[in-house]
Amino acid sequence: MARGVTRRVVAWLLALALAACAGGPPSAAPDPLPSWQPGPARTAILDFVRDVTTAGAPTFVPPAQRIAVFDNDGTLWTESPQYTQVLFMLEQVEAAAPRHPEWRADPAFQALAAHDEAALKAAGQDRLMALLFQASSGMTTEAYDRAIRDWLASARSPKFGRPYTELVYQPQLELLRYLRANGFRTWIVTGGTIEFVRPFSEAVYGIPPEQVVGSTQAVRYAQADGAMALVREPRLEFNDDGPGKPVGIYRQIGRRPILAFGNSDGDLQMLQYTTDGPGRTLGLVVHHDDAAREAAYDRQSAVGRLDKAWDEAAAHGWIVVSMKTDWKQLFPAGP
Amino acid sequence: MARGVTRRVVAWLLALALAACAGGPPSAAPDPLPSWQPGPARTAILDFVRDVTTAGAPTFVPPAQRIAVFDNDGTLWTESPQYTQVLFMLEQVEAAAPRHPEWRADPAFQALAAHDEAALKAAGQDRLMALLFQASSGMTTEAYDRAIRDWLASARSPKFGRPYTELVYQPQLELLRYLRANGFRTWIVTGGTIEFVRPFSEAVYGIPPEQVVGSTQAVRYAQADGAMALVREPRLEFNDDGPGKPVGIYRQIGRRPILAFGNSDGDLQMLQYTTDGPGRTLGLVVHHDDAAREAAYDRQSAVGRLDKAWDEAAAHGWIVVSMKTDWKQLFPAGP
How many other CB atoms sit within 10 Å of the CB of residue A133? Predict the structure, then answer.
């Protein structure tokens, strides 16, 4: 009997040691994509990940080359009814107005201050953009970063009554995690600026700042407040949109992605550059067809227009993901 | 006795399981920096790494913020007697000459073809740079990448009789590995272009392409050879040198480094930006004072001039590393 006990102790100790080593006893794997409705989009994703991770398969891709790129506005978080960064920048213009008395004579600023959309249109988009870039000009990148963090912490979407960082798509959070668990590195490739997305990308998406490719407002290394700092200049330096996206990917990632996920014509070239590459690739496009939960828009929309990229989807075999039918849950549950 | 045996078997099985778990029995750690001579530079590195990795210490830095940036030319590999990329680009000009009959009337090209240094100086650096950028203009980034790989595989340094990718500094290879083993991410921040450094950075330095920040020649996404591709344009888009280095770091890394290693005035602002940051930081400068093994140059050199950054080193507490006395072995042993 003593030996029987000893044997049981041996078995128990071994199991304990091996479990500590392996991280726990084996169990049935939970569904990695619980918010994705069974259907062609979900199947395409699961098949793709299986194909590129199966050692020895002709479709196998080594982990270092498993690069997945995601647009942000309209693909990872809502852009309805307006791009979140534009809302922030418009508020920045109002905040900066006292430092810019010359703006008072500017038709674009007058239209903005009066919330007069027709006058704003008449003033022209170039003049509006100039105001947006002037508003943060002269700020250090650190001060601008604080302004963005403060705004994101306090602003609420009038449409949804929640902070913008909660208006991210639950199925995409699951997909990002699932890809990373399968050896992918996940990148954001956004038409927004790097400064605006980096302050929340790690906490919200699990994507660190260096994996955010985006548009850039020029900065220069110069004296500011008695010390050397990176100081913002009033001009767009790089527009990471449309044909700019493959350029941004090349400059910052240096490898061709094998998966791209977008939602608008601004993602067309990124999708094309990805799926034109050698080997197994996957292109995906969110279609905002969900008026009940978010919004329904495509070919005629001023924000996130999906027109040419939709036409190209069929030709290239990109998967069009219906927000309405493919996504069970849209936003994460509140805190 | 049977129980004694059982007890020994239990102990043996447990040790086996735990060793499998831990990756082997403990042993005395080998010296992580065998090519670094004991002295102030080596001590400064070891102390710094200890300080930022000691949990609970006021100097502790979380792994995500352990960013180390290294210049390439003259810091990680030799730049003597000429920057390696310039040698490559000069050969590219000769190779491209048949496609550019208009060059025949160009004094800079004539001087280059005749290897006439005085005439080249008279033609002016701008004209020479224009030739260098025109030589690869119109090539796809993929064709240019192949040209660089081919050249690096076949070219030999006349001075050292070895491939350029073997003329890397052994003490720095050890330092890069040591930093990564301590949770750092190591980045290259080079005045050279990203295209030139990325093809060898992973194999030689263990630094993947996306962790190479550098100068960029403009590219655009366009038709080439019947398909869409990234095509090179004949202009420098971003000069990642001097005050450009903090800008490149900001744009691509998005965090302020805590360790910077350079060797010339082109690294001054990178060193300053790093060591002006909050918390524990370390700045290091290679001094090429080793005429016997490589070269001795500093304030008067056309390549890798170390003048202002040397003056600033004392004021900022940057460690000046003597190639001659701090580095036991210069280059790795041959294959």
Answer: 18
Interface confidence (ipTM) of the complex: 0.89
CB B29 within 8 A of CB B46: no
Which residues numbered 135-154 in A keep a CB inside 8 Å of some CB on B?
A: 141
Preceding amide of A209 cis, omega within 30: no
- Number of Cβ pairs < 8 A linking chain A and chain B: 101
Contact of B54 with B60, CB cutoff 8 Å: yes
Those residues whose C-beta lies under 8 Å from the C-beta of residue B311, and which sit 6 or more positions away, are none
Does residue B56 register a pLDDT over 90?
yes
By the CB < 8 Å criterion, does A243 face chain B?
A: yes
B216 interfaces chain A, CB cutoff of 8 Å = yes
Residue A105 CB coordination number (10 Å): 8
> How confident is the model at residue A24, as a pLDDT?
47
- Please say whether the beta carbons of B232 and B138 come within 8 A: yes
B63/A contact by beta carbon, under 8 A: no
Please give the residue that has the higher pLDDT: either A30 or A17.
Answer: A30
User: Which phi and psi angles does B319 have, rounded to 5°?
Assistant: -85, 120
For the beta sheet containing B185-193, the strands, ordered from the edge strand earlier in sequence to the opposite edge, are B227-238, B212-224, B185-193, B67-70, B259-262, B282-287, B319-322
Q: Which residue has the tokens 């027709």?
A: A118
Predicted confidence band of residue B310 (pLDDT cuts 50, 70, 90): very high
Q: What is the pLDDT of residues B72-91, one digit of tens each?
A: 999 999 999 999 999 999 99
User: Which single residue is written with the structure tokens 């081919």?
Assistant: B150
Whether A220 and chain B come into contact, CB under 8 Å, resolves to yes
pLDDT at A163 over 70: yes
How would residue A116 be classed by pLDDT, with cut points 50, 70 and 90? confident
**Nearest Cα residue to B218 out of B191, B245, B201, B239:** B239
Residues in chain B with CB shorter than 8 Å from the CB of A243 are 220-222
Instruction: Tell me the C-alpha distance between B313 and A119, whole Å.
Output: 56
**Which domains, ranges and CATH numbers included, belong to chain B?**
40-81+163-326 (3.40.50.1000)
What is the number of other CB atoms lying within 10 angstroms of the CB of residue B4?
8
Q: Could you give the C-alpha distances from A7 to A1, A10, B3, B173, in angstroms and in order?
A: 10, 5, 10, 51
The DSSP result for A90-142, as a single string, is HHHHHHHGGG-GGGGG-HHHHHHHTT-HHHHHHH-HHHHHHHHHHHTTT-BHH
Whether the bond into B34 is cis, omega within 30 of 0: no
Distance (Å) of CA A146 to CA A62, A139, A140, A141, A199: 39, 11, 10, 9, 9
pLDDT given at position A335: 73
Cα distances from B280 to residues B45, B47, B60, B204, B273, in angstroms, run 12, 11, 8, 29, 13
